[in-house]
Amino acid sequence: MFRRTLMGAAAAVALAMPIKAQAADIVDTAVSAGSFTTLVAAVQAAGLVDTLKGNGPFTVFAPTDEAFAALPEGTVESLLLPENKDKLVEILTYHVVPAKVMSGDIAGKRAKVLTVQGDRLSVIAKNGVRVNGADVVQADIEASNGVIHVVDEVILPE
Q1: Is the CA virtual torsion 37, 39, 40, 42 positive or negative?
Q2: pTM (2 decimals)?
Q3: Residue 32: CB partners within 8 Å, gap ≥ 6?
Q4: What's the pLDDT tens digit per position in 90-144?
């Protein structure tokens, strides 16, 4: 009898507890934010959706729609053309680090971090965070497979 009562009480407690929702992945997090429509379109055109929905972990320095709009006129439209896919992939993967790096991990430091594209980004985390000259305007947006840091510029490989 005691065992049944204990099991019943445990089941009741378990059912009464709220279910924690699974965090969205990098792509779904960007989509739901609403300020990355150009980035999401570019990720789709580059064929990188499945990669960024993968296990990761990833750190994405995500340019806002305003950052893309600041590029010279016609740049985004040109990059989205199928014949420019390789260049688009190069630019987008330059914004991705194959590790989860939270702002607290680099606070007060300077680092050269390797990107998925193969080159390194210069990260300076003294008095805010700058990545190759772009300011991180919002940090530590966690996703199930990494983290997004919002940047105010599209970071172009040299």
Answers
A1: positive
A2: 0.84
A3: 24
A4: 999 999 999 999 999 999 999 999 999 999 999 999 989 999 999 999 999 999 9
| Cα–Cα distance measured from residue 123 to residue 2, given in angstroms and rounded to the nearest whole number | 60
Dihedrals phi, psi of 83, to nearest 5 degrees: -70, -10
- For residue 101 the two structure tokens come to 């790096």
**Which residue shows structure tokens 């507890």?**
17
3-class DSSP state for residue 3? helix
From the centroid of its chain, how far is CA 65? 14
DSSP string, 90-152: HHHHTTEESS---HHHHTT-EEEEE-TTSSEEEEE-SSS-EETTEEEEEEEEEETTEEEEEES
